[in-house]
Amino acid sequence: MSEEIFLLPDVGEGLTEAEIVTWKVAVGDVVTLNQPLVDIETAKATVELPSPYAGTVVALHGNVGDVLEVHKPLITFEIGGGASAAPAATTQAAPPTSTEAAPAGATSDKTEGSVGEGREAVLIGYGVANEDAVVTRKHRRQGAAPTAPAPAAPAAVSVAPLSEVAPRSTPPVRLYAKQHGLDISSLSGTGRDGLITRDDVEQALSGTPSAPARVSAPITGPNTTSRFVGRDLESWSTGPKEERIPVKGVLRSMAEAMVQSAFTQPRAAVWVRVDASRTMDLLASLKNQPSLAGVRLSPLTIVALAVCDAARHFPGLNSSFDAAANEVVVRRSVNLGIAANTPRGLIVPNIKGADQLDLVGMATALTVLVDKARQGTTTPNEMIGTTLSITNVGPFGVDAAIPILPPGTGAILAVGQIAKAPWVVDDEVVVRQVVELAMAFDHRQVDGAMASAVLAHIGRFLNDPAPAIIAG
Length: 472
Description:
By secondary structure, this protein is of the alpha+beta class. Helix content is 22%, strand content 22%. It has 3 domains: 2-127, CATH 2.40.50.100; 167-215, Dihydrolipoamide Transferase (Irregular), CATH 4.10.320.10; 249-469, Chloramphenicol acetyltransferase-like domain (Chloramphenicol Acetyltransferase, 2-Layer Sandwich).
């Protein structure tokens, strides 16, 4: 019999602390390798930690809501005796789903200490992996060599059917199913949006049918589950006169990032109104195609493709300012951040290599990103390395916004609602679908001329998106 202490791991790049959100075990519980132990919230994401030991829980070093420092005791286990070790298994990180390799330093850390009885080398802090297949077929570029700094023409891609989506679950649940000889692809998940849970696996092993899966709200609807909105009127009139909300975790990270951006990046902005009628007509046409059944297409899909197309034509847009080296860093791959309003606060996860995605790939990647943000399963790796961003205020009924830049990025595009409005066509006033776009940019590396040209390019794309999206 021996005791082992599981220290809180660094689940991101240099994170120093995390808040305990949910304990999934209690003192006296016998746990197996990779069994989920606890959900923690860092400044970047909520992460599920699996067990690096097979043994008995002796002590939990914190309560729900407590903030612990990284590398401080989290759980004490008793190893040996009546607690049998689970079969040894080698757990490997899945290859990146995008065409760009994961950023340096974003690899998962193994637990500290040597591999011994009841213990194996196990990935810690990877949270919920991206189990949704993302189509990453590259754009076919016309008239430009692959190494050219700025492609000369918009990408023309053909529309392909969405590939099969892999079963969605967490790594510990997949390992648990594998150890018991169960094919997880045969299960229907009862978790949020069909997530396959440990209970689903156990019910399948015992022969008990699973409950129907829960379905989330549509991707295009506004998320009003933030801690600051969606309160009922009764609590407003009968509740306490004052409420104090601790600023920690994602909320603190958001506050610190916005202050850093506002006081370190000289921000300017440009905006334009665009006739997006052809964008809406194209979306309506595509949704009727049998090959696109099940693909969530929205105006944001087209906007994201437009932003990536603009970055290829104006590489300086996809840049950051390195104040320490006094250099502008221009990147040739777009990690497209999408601002997401979640119950934990505003986060900006990104799609790695977004400039290499076609229509179906972009739609799928956006679906995965938004669903994971709403479920609180965004991983730390999906929160780092953003180069360009989009914030979509349209679903809230807002016409326009001037956003604050995420730190380290060169520009962010705000997209207002698409609504019917009077528009002049051939000297006649007609009703068109109109959207207002506003782009904030760091004036140290993006000047007004470039920003204006970029926004005009995005406007032209939305005015007639078909040539760049559908192969002629």
